Amino acid sequence: MRYILIFILLINSAFSIDLTLEDIPAKVVKKGLSKKKTYFGKNLFQGEFKKNSQIRYTADYIINIGDEISIKLWGSYNYIGKVKVDTQGNIFIPKVGTVHILGVRNKNLEKKVANSINRVFNSNVSVYANLEGYQPISIFVTGAVNKPGLYMGLSSHSILQLLDKAGGIVDGEGSYRNIVILRNNRIIKQLDLYQFLVNGRLSLFQFHDGDVIRVDTLKNSIDISGEVQRPYIFELSAKSVPVGEIMRFILPKPTVTHFIITKWEDGVEKIKKYPIEDKYRIYVKNGEKIRFVSDYLKNNLTITIDGEHGNLHTVMVKKGENLKDLLSKIILTPLSDANAVQLYRKSIALKQKQLIDANLKDLEARVMTTGSSTVEEAKIRQEESALVLNFIKRASKVQPKGQVIINKATDLNSVILEDGDRVFIPKKSHIIVVEGEVSLPNAQTFVPNYSIKDYIESCGGYSPRANHEKVLLVKKNGQVITYNAKSWWSDKELKIEAGDSILVLGKVDSKNIQITSSVTQILYQIAVGAAVVLRAF
Question: Which CATH superfamily does the domain covering 354-406+422-530 fall into?
């Protein structure tokens, strides 16, 4: 039964197909990738506004009944005390009498008290008056909030503190742009919290006992997506607004060139594309969708340039541009090695990775299906299988670089650039790096007329695990040449140049010829594709 299951798995693996999103039915993609859209402002009440009840100086605060005033007099008359504003709007100061301060602005409080005292004491009395505490009040919060009710607060509280006490605005139901404050059943103020969310502007307002905060329901909204910093559902300030007004909130990316409006008319979905210049000419309505796109990115490629050069590290080029055109724009320095330019491509790296993974799966299948004729052989196979599986695990983590070899004879006009390509300009080097299965892997200075054998002997010679038939000479442009140390003539025509590398691969210690062959091939692929010498087992 075990072998039947393995056979089925191998059959499935052999006929597996790599699918892209384009190959998968739209319903499946939507189901697997769907993500609930967030309403702009949803996170506003996660800042715990309700916990902040500190009293701060507000110059335009209007003195109210129940407020506490600190009074200090010194000179020909001394007095220190705290008095409350009574129901008639007065405070009482001994030897002075009543002072009417209801409705006086905080910034004028001290002057108002001083004028009253100066009418009693002609001179030599200094005055200090300060608003010490606000009278707590009760405010109703209703409408589309999570916990409507009557809440205690201070007249100096901001609307954010009171809305937070009520659990915040109901996501997707409440309006952030239509909030009203009622006093005696009349609207005395309207607020738009989008101004606070975007610009940090919040209109301060002095509440009275019994005021009502009403959060209206969300009436008009539009779904934003595409090349924007804020892909949310946005509330409209009216039934119909120009696209330009919405753009103030969504922060479109600089490369945006067009916007696409999707709407329903008579049960039919209609999609139309407009240039970004029409943002104040085209209006959108409730329920429509806008997607901001960039044709600029479709017609241009992003190329990364690393290494020794004097240009920017990221450039935009027209689609269809070739490597020769790009290299002509790069400013080389005296240290740049123009003869060893390297090109790395994501699509090549992906293919290299797929090939390595396919060989690893094949190797794993061989290990799992190898039989044994005796108990002793089975034990040996079991130990070997554990070593091979460990090798497979390590090898699967290697990421190929995707290098495209540029030879001296390469026609650079024919090398068409792809989006995401990386061009590397190496420094001129007089170093030869020797890695892998040698006694002392290290870097050496270049010596003219030295052979591969000479450099390896300079590193103490081959290690006991070295595969003398798999020595790789990696040229400075990335080209790989295999060298067989057991063949006396194999390095006669090999020319080593400054900047080259020597990689000595290891032997595969296995009784199974197929496993030995597979592991050796994978080691070679990894060394060539990722410039990594991986030890087998």
Answer: Outer membrane lipoprotein wza domain like (3.10.560.10)
